[in-house]
Amino acid sequence: MKKTELIFIPSPGLSHLVSTVETAKLLLQRDERLSITVLLMKLPNDNLIDNYIEKFSSNSNTNSRLKFINLPNQEISPVSTTFLFDFIDNQKDSIREIVSNFLKTPSESKLGGLVLDMFCTEFIEIASEFDLPSYVFFTSGACTLGLFSHLVELKYEQNQDLTKYKDSDVELSIPCFSVPVPVKVLPALFVEESPMSKIFLNYFKRIQETKGIMVNTFHELEPFAIEFLSNQNKCPKVYPVGPILSSSSDDEHSTHQGYDEIKKWLDEQPENSVIFLCFGSRGSFEEAQVKEIASALEKSGQRFLWSLRKPGAKGMMHVPTEYEDFREVLPEGFLERTEGIGKVIGWAPQVAVLSHPSIGGFVSHCGWNSTLESVWFGVPIATFPLFAEQQLNAFELVKELGMAEAIRIDYRKDMRGEKPSEIVGSEEIEAAIRRLMVEEGGSRVRNKVKEMKERSRMALMKGGSSYNAQSVFIEDVIKNVS
């Protein structure tokens, strides 16, 4: 049986890689005619990817039709604001060589195309050189894809200067949303006058050149946006194939030091009683904000598990580190006063925690992976976005879908550390926690999330919306090379 090979190219970083690998696994399980090679880009000193691949490869259930190729390391200093995208673009020659060698080497598989991360659309030109189709794997949701497409249209077709929306109170009518969208929740990069704005818009403009877009969402979660995108002639074919997330059994952090202690503590708590605070791999706060969060938790009286991490050095590429002693940043006596009802930890095994029955709420930065995980496990969110498209996700959850309570929707942290961050007061945080965990309004949100939990699982079952979308994608790939 002649196989079809796909080459997946995720952007650097563990979150995009995990989503890519999980997508590849799903497709391979669905059809034995497919094989997949994933090209790995690793930023300097990024050991997380090595650890993830090593653990994944050592799993006895690893699919033999899924292979990995490391792209060459680059000695580039992360000083420029465009560092990440320069790093990606510098891989063109290596990727071109890999594709060329594949086509020259006799094989049982026929190369069916490149599946590119949303930040790797520059490699469309490599696919075109070899007369291969290209596809995009969009790691965010359909509303975000629709918004990006709309901003591209405003910029390149209507010749609008998007910087006019910076610090504006305007609300935009965006076709993939059923409600007006305040420009305050747009990713800041799109409305800034900077090289990054042009780079981002060009990346998303090029999506139009592809054969199709796999989106990490499911029809029941974002029906309005998916139906709009599916009916647009200018948009490539959309395949809502999610929710794609790392399962708890594969969660690479579930065996990290301290997990047994966390699980033991959670096991001792009543069902749905604990609110979990976690802000992603790059989420951290300065001391003043930490104290406001601590005060809110203490006053709320709610049980809590708080992943508290120390801000790294200033700059876009620096990630948080661990505290040696939480007392250096928490209010005096906080740990003693909350002993028994709260637990402060460092890095959290998020999937394993969210899947625990004692977790009843989630204070989250609203990254898309975290959003899908909250839906999958039926844990409602209180929104505390930090950067990138997280404000847009928070807006979608609260206003478009009615599936979250807002601490803030438009809170934004300057990830470069050039401006002091706004401080959200303890009263505001406490009120949102109470709404989510105690008050009647929270029960409405909780019921919606619980309903979507069931729908998320049905979407991936045989005959479900995402199962069918995966089938259509596979058939389209094979048809495009036959």
UniProtKB/TrEMBL annotation:
Keywords: Glycosyltransferase, Transferase. InterPro entries: UDP-glycosyltransf_plant, UDP_glucos_trans, UDP_glycos_trans_CS. It comes from the Eukaryota. GO terms for molecular function: glycosyltransferase activity. It is an enzyme of class 2 (transferase). It holds the Pfam family UDPGT. Its EC number is 2.4.1.-. Belongs to the UDP-glycosyltransferase family. This is Glycosyltransferase. It comes from Penstemon smallii.
